[in-house]
Amino acid sequence: MFKIDFTLSPSEFDARLAQLYPQDIAHELKHLNASKRLMVINALDAKHFIDTFIHLEDEIAQEIFILIDKVKQEQLLSSLEIDDLKSFVDNVDDESKYYVFSLLTKETQESLVHILSYNEDSAGSLINPHFITLRANMSIKEATNKVIVSSGDKDEVGVVFVLSEENHLLGAIKLQDLILARANSTLSNIMDANYPKIYTIDSKTDAINVIRDYDIAILPVVNKYDQMVGIITSDDALTLMQDSHEQTMQELVAVGDFELDQTAIKRSIARLPWLLTCVLINLGIAFILTIFKPVLDAYVALVMFMPMILGMAGNIGTQSFAATLLKLHRNPNKDKKKHVNKEVWVGVINSILVGLTGFGAVMIFFIVMNVETRRLMISMIVGISLTISMVISAVVGVMLPYILRRFKADEKAAGGPVITTINDFVAQGLYLLLASILLIWLV
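Given the sequence above, the corresponding structure tokens read:
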């Protein structure tokens, strides 16, 4: 990573910054004090500064916004895309919101208020008002001319939309198809009347799924009257998916939210509670070992297969848990019973197959190692323990997210070390209990 060299002459300093990517400058700005930040900002031309600003972290963006003069603030706000502007406004305090709004044009204020009026989790909160519309009665020549004349710097022109006189969405036309259309053709002949759309009250997840499933770059958003109110771009969906994925992965492994530049101590504090929880559960596992000490003393070979039992139970439990989290993330209120039944049956089938494989593998191991003492019984214990513990772990993995959500707890926080430790507790207890019954108590 580069470092900004403040020892350069003014001309060399400006020339050096002009060669750097906005992302790199944004990363470096957060490590500088106010005076040096101002030096960098003043050395950037307007476009370079705006491109850098949108890559800044929320807190740094607010600090830099305060540093620049009012004229530059107005230029910055007028140049930001509506989604970047919304993100900035969302993160400033109430007093600053009024000031920011006072710097916006009336049209931008109305657009921003309209977007902010939607529920934060709805597709309406993502809409971009910069799109091109055509009337159904336009000729190809009129439509092409309108796209050329009326499109602005912020407008998305890859797809244009055909509306009725009442602004009802009738269809969409790719810009390429419009340009290549013959003059005597009509918009109805070249438009896609079945182009996907989404309603403002639908969820963000639904919007992402439509963009992904239909492989489109621009998704129109309509209100309950089928009137078009905005668009969602694939770039917006990608950013949302990335943020959601990072958050899910952090919570799934119970590491919490953290910044790349966070100190080791802060990261440690975020993760420590879950690790301490695992320590307490592992004390229970240690207690199990003391209870079943007689069978372990008599049949030391049992210890060799513990990693297999614990590992497979943990694996299938994590698979079921992850599949259920994905289901809750995509369609939280749809086909719950069907999902649970399917995942349980998947767990049962896989558990039986793995159990049979485990039984055979242990038998072959004993034969190769020329071990004859109770090898058939121990092989059966391993196979049965594998099967039952994996079934239980699969059921726990499927049901735990639903149970936690029912009690308004964060289902993702039970992932990673916690669910693995719980599965270890169950699998080891079952394995040693079964071994004690068949090898000692019934003998």
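Residues 253-258 have pLDDT under 50 and may be disordered. Try to locate this feature in the token string yourself.
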